Amino acid sequence: MIIRLFLFSIVLLGSCAWANQVTEPSNHPPLQPLVDAVKKGGTLIIPPGTYSGPVYVEQSITLDGQGKVTIDAGGKGSVVVLDTDGAVLKNLHLTNSGSHHNDLDSGVQVRGNFNVVKDNIIDNCLFGVDLQQSENNIVRRNSISSKNEELGMRGDAIRLWYSFFNKITDNTISNSRDMVVWYSKNNIIHNNKISGGRYGLHFMYSQFNDVQFNEYYNNSVGIFLMYSDSVVVKNNIVSHATGAAGIGIGFKETSDVVVENNQILFSSTGLSIDVSPYQPDTKNRFINNLIAFNGIGIRFLADWRDNIFKNNHFKANITQITVSGGKTANRNEWKGNYWDDYEGFDLDKNGIGDTPHEIYAYADRIWQDVPGAQFYKGSAILELIDFLERLAPFSEPDLLVSDHAPLMNVNLVKADEYKNATEVEAELLNDLDSRLKRYIQ
After folding, report:
1. Predicted pLDDT at 398
2. Which SS3 state, helix, strand or coil, does residue 417 take?
3. Greater pLDDT, 211 or 242
């Protein structure tokens, strides 16, 4: 009898604990009847107040909350589902979605083309805006955050799946998991601010996307491209991707990318390059990026080739270049970069060092060969060992990088040296010296 009571108590307590985790259904009036009453092509100015969801939009109408309307899904399903073309959803507060990853419970699910989702606040929703097999949609000026869960259990702020020609612009994202672009081409991702997540932006098998003027702060990884060719990454700020696996911008078997005019700052690793470029007869181009204040400026995960590095600025990185497993990064093209640790001279006063800037790898680099030793990177004892190795190496060091035309000053790069420089790029190039000074201060 005592055992039965004990087991009953355990079951009862477990049931109570489970019940406390379940969100109570919303007691607010449903919005669906008002939506169903709107004719195709019409506009519903929703009276101020809080309404219960989910809401299903199945024809091209406009829902406008004018900043005075909340839709609460009551912890079940997605708040709004746009299963149509040409609908507009704006000025709403969307909250309290379900918590099922399998169902992609979201603030907004988009299952159509030419829809607009703008100027909304989306919070306490597992996923923010989820687009599946949807084209030519606009997601603009939304504020998005996920549920208060551990990082890996949150949903993605914006998720594109087999979705093409969409514009994701001017959104503010915080404390979600990732922004993901999977199997999706020709999307524009501009002027977004992403912080407090895992991947600020993660591409998977997605080509011809354009990523410009975004800001990524305090994410585990700023931007990562996996098997995603012909992506343009320009004019972005990626900062404070810290932690053991922190990466500013990473590349995995990715080809024909342009990485230009970005600021990659205060991260464990600035650029991580793994078997990239991957496709035959392709090149990746890294031009005029500021790579500064990182633990490692660029980490190559293998001895690889066909990357072009021109007019980049390496400033105050603890280690400029590393190659995992030894070998060299000198099969890539290095020309006209600024290196703050260059020790040569410019006797002819042409702004270019008289001798190449060379980076060597010595045999006894414990923190590179023993992963656990990376915790002590920068410590006095490892710095002493590194100094002694350079002073009297036990073997001939390997040449990692040789830049035959190192810049002497960061302000020598001019925009007219580039054939295709735009006005915006020219302004960024000419202003690079002042930006460097600002970050030094």
Report:
1. 81
2. helix
3. 211
